[in-house]
Design a protein that fits this description.
four-stranded antiparallel β-sheet; disordered N terminus; five-stranded mixed β-sheet; about 350 residues
Length: about 350
C-alpha cells in the first residue's frame, strides 16, 4: 500500500511539473532545453570540399542527395550528388530570369520525380524533372508564377495533395489594404489559414521571419518553423486543416529595434541554423549556448563553432537527443530509409563539406 501511495505521489508531482513547464511556455518565458541524451560524435565526411555557396536545403532521391546551393563556377543552384562519393554528378536551375532560371531560391520540395524550387526573389516556383536531369538534360518542366503565389511569400512547400505558403507581410499597412494570412494551406478539397505570431511585436517578428527555416513531415501532416533570430520552435498540424500544436521558447529574440530596423551591435541572438524532420521527429542545427548579450562583432570573433549541435525533438516539442560535433552545421536533411542525417558542415576556415550521421 505504501508503494502504491509513493507511486501516486510521484505521478502527481510529474503532472504538476509538466503543467508548470507548459505555463512557463504560455507566459513567454525562455530557457534552453534539457535533453534526455547528450553525447559527442563527429559526422562522417563524404567526398572532398564542396565548391558551393550557402546551402539552404537537402533532400534525398533514390541514391542521390538533392542540394539547393549555387555552384560558384556554373552559377547553377540545383545539385544532384552521389550519396556514396559526395560528387556532384549533375546540376540545373541556372541564375537568370528566363524559363527554368532562378534568382535566389531557398526552399525545395520533391513529389515523386518532380522537384519544386521556390524563388522568393522572383515570386515563382520552378519545377524540374529529376530523371531528365540525371540523363544530362536541363529538366525544366514548368513555372508556377506569382499570380498563383500571394505577395510577401517567403516560403512555399509542395507535397502530395497540396502546398503550404508561409508569408511575412510587412508591418507597414497601406490605407485600405487588407492583411492576408500568415500561413496558407492549400489542399485539393479546400484552403485553410493561420494568422498567429509567437511574438506580438510585428516589427520584431517581421525581421525574425524574413528567412525562416521550415520543415514539413514526409507524410505532409505536420509542419515546424523556427526564426532566423532567437530560438522559438512552432509546431503545426496540417491534418484536415492547419492548427497550432505548440510553441517552445528557448532564446528570446531581444535584439534592439531602431527606426523600425534591427540593430545587432549590442545583442545578436542566434538559435537555429537549419531544420528537417521525419514523421516522428524534428531535427535541427542549434547553438551550443545562449549568446544573448553579445553583439554581432563579439559573436563573429568567437573561435568555437556557433552551431555545433544536432538536436532532436519529438513533434510534441520534447527534447530527446543532442549531439555535439566539431564543425558548424549549415544545413540538414534526413533519409528515412537509411535512418541517416545528411549535413552540410563548415570548418573553421568556412570550407564546406558533406557529412552523414546515423541517429
Amino acid at each position: 500500500m505504501r508503494t502504491v501511495f509513493k507511486n501516486l505521489v510521484f505521478l502527481l508531482l510529474s503532472c504538476l511539473l509538466a503543467f508548470s513547464c507548459e505555463q512557463k511556455k504560455d507566459k513567454g518565458e525562455y530557457s534552453l532545453p534539457r535533453f534526455k541524451q547528450e553525447f559527442t560524435r563527429e559526422f562522417e565526411i563524404i567526398g572532398s570540399e564542396l565548391d558551393l555557396g550557402l546551402v539552404s536545403s537537402i533532400k534525398t532521391y533514390k541514391d542521390y542527395l538533392i542540394l539547393l546551393g549555387q555552384n560558384r563556377w556554373t552559377k547553377q543552384y540545383l545539385q544532384i550528388i552521389d550519396k556514396k562519393t559526395g560528387e556532384i554528378i549533375h546540376s540545373s536551375a541556372a541564375f537568370g530570369r528566363g524559363p527554368g532560371e532562378v534568382l535566389g531560391p531557398r526552399y525545395l520540395s520533391i513529389i515523386g520525380q518532380e522537384c519544386y524550387l521556390y524563388d522568393p526573389s522572383s515570386d515563382v516556383a520552378q519545377v524540374y524533372d529529376l530523371e531528365q536531369i540525371l540523363q544530362g538534360e536541363v529538366g525544366y518542366i514548368r513555372t508556377i508564377r506569382d499570380l498563383d503565389i500571394p505577395p510577401f511569400t517567403v516560403g512555399c512547400f509542395y507535397g502530395p495533395g497540396g502546398r503550404v505558403i508561409f508569408r511575412n507581410e510587412t508591418f507597414i499597412q497601406r490605407e485600405g489594404s487588407q492583411p492576408m494570412p500568415r500561413i496558407i494551406l492549400d489542399l485539393d478539397e479546400a484552403q485553410y489559414t493561420y494568422d498567429g505570431y509567437p511574438v506580438p511585436d510585428r516589427v520584431r517578428s517581421y525581421w525574425m521571419y524574413t528567412q525562416p527555416h521550415l520543415t514539413i513531415s514526409p507524410d505532409f501532416s505536420k509542419m515546424a518553423v523556427v526564426p532566423e533570430y532567437g530560438a522559438i520552435l512552432e509546431r503545426f498540424s496540417l491534418s484536415g486543416g492547419i492548427s497550432l500544436m505548440g510553441v517552445d521558447r528557448f532564446i528570446a529574440p531581444d535584439f534592439a529595434i531602431k527606426d523600425t530596423n534591427p540593430s545587432f551591435s549590442e545583442n545578436f541572438p542566434l538559435g537555429f541554423t537549419s531544420i528537417t524532420s521525419t514523421n516522428d521527429k524534428i531535427i535541427v542545427g542549434m547553438v551550443g549556448e545562449d549568446l544573448s548579450g553579445l553583439g554581432i562583432r563579439e559573436v563573429s570573433e568567437l573561435k568555437s563553432p556557433l552551431f555545433p549541435y544536432l538536436a532532436v525533438f519529438d513533434w510534441n516539442g520534447r527534447p530527446l537527443v543532442r549531439v555535439r560535433n566539431s564543425m558548424n552545421i549549415e544545413c540538414l536533411g534526413y533519409d528515412e530509409g537509411e535512418g541517416v542525417v545528411y549535413a552540410v558542415l563548415r570548418n573553421a576556415e568556412d570550407a564546406r563539406y558533406l557529412g552523414k550521421m546515423r541517429i
